[in-house]
Amino acid sequence: MRSKKIMYSLISVVAGVVLACSLTACSRLKSAADNSVPSSAVPVASVSAASRMSPDEVRLTAATAAFKAIPHPVEYQAEVDAICSKIASSPALFISDIKAVDAADTEGYLVYIDKTHFIGSDYEPADLVPLVKNSAYPINRNDLSLRAPVEEALTVMANAAKAEGLSLLVSSTYRSYSYQEQVFAKWVRIDGLEEAERESARAGTSQHQLGTAIDFGSIEDDYAETAPCRWLTKHAAEYGFSLSFPQGYEPITGFRWECWHFRYIGVPACELQKAWFNDIQQYMIEFVACWRDAE
Ligand SMILES: [Zn+2]
Questions:
Q1: Ligand 1 centroid vs 208 CA: distance in angstroms?
Q2: Residue 246 Cα, ligand 1 centroid: separation in angstroms?
Q3: Cα of 245 from ligand 1 centre, angstroms
Q4: How many angstroms is it from 216 CA to the middle of ligand 1?
Q5: Structural domain boundaries in the chain
Q6: Over its length of 295 residues, how does the chain's per-residue pLDDT go in tens digits?
Q7: Starting from the edge strand earliest in sequence, which strands make up the sheet with 170-172, in order?
């Protein structure tokens, strides 16, 4: 009785395997028929690799190709390649990270803006608030303003610095398009066009027009040697602020090192920048733009 039962089970297992194999063979044949492209046109391997990809993986492949196509200077090519290799080695994790950052960016902080990506002369954030005398941070003039959530984040960060006995002096914040035109013209008069291009943005290309960028302290290189700047370098990302123009990246960012200039991008984007993009904001912003375009 028992051996008969075993025999029946064995037969049904074998039958099941045979059926499954033949179904697989059928579906293979069917998909081969569907892909009725001349075999000389598309390699069979790439067709089957592409058909196994999820929509997110297809999107990632397109975004990575677009990111690689951005003309990065040759001396940064190895770094760009290493970033892409790291992403390619853990696609599921990267997709999960970038989707979370994209979803968290409900305030539109991750605008792609640099010397070749302009925002319009009429762009003005709707939620600007004036910076007034307060207990968290000092201001060096009375016409400063920031987007409201950025001012809130600044207050939290400045209070954390204050708890360690440090004062984060806010020196420059939102600049309108027309004000940026005046600023750029002033630096051209003082330093000449070539030098002005290195540290002042033409109107429409300044992060300050976003209402999310802050210049701290003296706006001079010597600020880097101060305790508040050292604190910012170490802790700003914990509060969602990212150094925009790091040392050694002028050919990538378009601007010389500015130890004082931080842009609010939110904590998740700061983490993405650090985990996948060598902590370089420009690379992260570029990739996010490519990812959004590839949707
Ligand atoms: Zn600045």
A1: 6
A2: 12
A3: 9
A4: 8
A5: 1-35, 128-264
A6: 444 444 444 444 444 433 343 333 333 333 333 444 444 455 555 666 667 899 999 999 999 999 999 999 999 999 999 999 999 999 999 999 999 999 999 999 999 999 999 999 999 999 999 999 999 999 999 999 999 999 999 999 999 999 999 999 999 999 999 999 999 999 999 999 999 999 899 999 999 999 999 999 999 999 999 999 999 999 999 999 999 999 999 999 999 999 999 999 999 999 999 999 999 999 999 999 999 999 8
A7: 170-172, 213-216, 261-264, 241-243
Query: What is the distance in A from the centroid of ligand 1 to the CA of 291?
Result: 27
- DSSP character string of the chain: -HHHHHHHHHHHHHHHHHHHHHHHHHHHHHHHHH--S-TTTS-HHHHHHHHHS-HHHHHHHHHHHHHHHS---GGGHHHHHHHHHHHHHSHHHHHHHHHHHHHH-TT------BTTB---TT---TTEEE----SS--BSSS--EEEHHHHHHHHHHHHHHHHTT----EEE----HHHHHHHHHHHHHHH-HHHHHHHSPPTTS-GGGGT-EEEETTSSGGGGGSHHHHHHHHHGGGGTEEESS-TT-HHHHSS---TTEEEE--HHHHHHHHHHSTT-HHHHHHHHHHHHHT-
> For 128-264, CATH number?
3.30.1380.10
Distance 131 CA to ligand 1 centre (A): 16
- The pTM (predicted TM-score) of the whole model is 0.82
